[in-house]
Amino acid sequence: MLITFKCRAAPDVVMLENLAQYLVGIVGKRLGQRGVITHDELGDAITKLEAAIVTDKQERAEHEGHFHEGEEGHDRHEVPIGLAQRAYPFLDMLRVAKKENADIVWGI
């Protein structure tokens, strides 16, 4: 199922429900049928999401050496897309909404 985040200050952001649930959880919300991140909550939400991205990047850097690229007897592994790439449109929306004192809503 697709979830559409709306904000009067930014273009809509559409994502799959499981990613939306994960990102909304990071910022301290629950993904219900309807929801809102108020302009008062945006600073904390941005801080939490940015911290999660930094942690993800650090963990990915630590594990990069574990991909045995080109070694005999090891299959080629694709490096999965990181949180930074998946979260960028949502993080950008949070930042624009904060700058414009706008709320972000979904499910309406």
UniProtKB/TrEMBL annotation:
A Pfam cross-reference name: DUF1840
Superkingdom field: Bacteria
Name the record gives this protein: DUF1840 domain-containing protein
Species the sequence originates in: Paraburkholderia humisilvae
